[in-house]
Amino acid sequence: MSVKSLIPPWFRIWHLKRRIKRVRQLQAANDERFQNLKLSTVGMVTSEWSDVDVELDYLIDTIHGNGGRAGIQSNLPVSLTRRCDYLKLAAKSGLFPGPLNKAFKRLASMLLQAKERRHDFVHGTVIADTETYEFVTMRTIVKRGSRQYRERRYSATQVSNCLDEAKTIAVSLRYTTDKMRSHLGIEDAQNA
How many Cβ atoms from other residues are within 10 Å of residue 31's Cβ? Predict the structure, then answer.
């Protein structure tokens, strides 16, 4: 028997209402300056992860169009986890030289390590806590038909690290895609 099943439903509802009330209190307490900082920070993190998503899709499209459709899987993956799985399958497929296979594995590992932080900022709501000057992310996670709410706190340094991590991943994806396209003799439309 799980611990969760021992908690009465009325308590879970009371606890959820209490958390929502706390979120509203934090939102109401935000001063304009910190609110602007929050918006610019969330915008930068989202923008950097958008670059990662575009670069990842470009790499997967290149793999898929050059043997991946037949040798790995016929459908293109959509979710981040499935795209990482696709990179791992590409590395195991033997369709590409060893250095590219190592790069695919390394990129999948980097993405999976950063996945939860990405989801917090891209798919959650971010609240600026003016008392602690931290960013609080709240996300709804649906598991087995029930909703779970997760809250995480990020210091300014942690948010900065998240930005740097996304930039590093985007550059690594672009470098790997360029190496792969060069190996396959494919020119970019921009350079043609």
Answer: 10
Average pLDDT, the chain: 83
What is the rounded CA–CA span in Å between residue 96 and residue 63? Answer: 9
Written as one letter, the residue type at 130 is T
| 8-state DSSP, 88 | H
Alpha carbons within 13 angstroms on the beta-carbon side of residue 73 total 15
The yes/no answer on whether domain 31-184 falls in CATH 3.40.50 is no
The model's pLDDT over 139-162, given as tens digits with 9 standing for 90+, comes to 888 888 888 888 999 988 898 899
Q: Rounded to 10 degrees, what is the CA torsion of 62, 66, 70, 72? A: -50
Smallest CA-to-CA distance from 170 within 27, 58, 42 is with: 58
CA 192 – CA 187 distance, rounded (Å): 6
Please report, for the chain, the start and end positions of each structural domain, with discontinuous segments joined by +. 31-184
180 contact partners, CB below 8 Å, separation of at least 6: 59, 62, 63, 96, 100
pLDDT of residue 43: 87
Helix (H) or strand (E) holding 77: none
